[in-house]
Amino acid sequence: MFKKSLLIFAFFLSISVSAQTIMPETLILDVPTASVLDKYQASLMTRTYANGSVMESLDFGVWQQLNIGMSLAVYELVGSSEDIKILTPDFQAKWKLFDGNLYFPAIAIGYDGRRYGYIRPTKEYLDDRKGGYLTMSREVFIPGLEATAGVNLSDFDIHDVYFFMGTSWTVTEWASLLAEWDNINSVHDSRLNIGARAYISPSLALSAAVRRIGRGDENERILQLRYVTNF
Fold this sequence. Notes:
By secondary structure, the chain is mainly beta.
């Protein structure tokens, strides 16, 4: 029975690995790149972070260069707390305007409603939604090193303009290093995040990172699992 189960598992694993292409990196960690899912691709991402919180994000390539998705977070899901809270769902969308070339970066615009760091007493968040954004990405200096930079308006308030930048360095076929400086409006409110990503298969990746470095009790460790498939 065990051998039969092992053979069935190996069969489905081989189908998954052979059928999927390498996943597009649509996010570094929190910073959106200019990459998008291909048409008829779907991405399921699970993030575990502070206070036993878990967020599920589901994105679809609904049209060439256009992605839409939604996210749902549950506060204190992991652990022994009996006071679990389902947070308000958010949505995200991205449209790639330009693929990039030898001289100019790829360009995309989008909206990201995800928020992190829920504070139960005030019902507020440490990290507000990114809101509307414009992002640019391209490979720089050495093969596998991709740089991203952009600007965003949280809640589309023209008086609250933020900037972001980040890099993803694919060291080998199965691992990459990640770094980003996000929410740049003032140094105090900006976020420095670093992490690493392991590619378990061409369609499955596991990331570990530290967020809000240098912000005392607000820093956190996260784990993130992402799976990309076709539909």
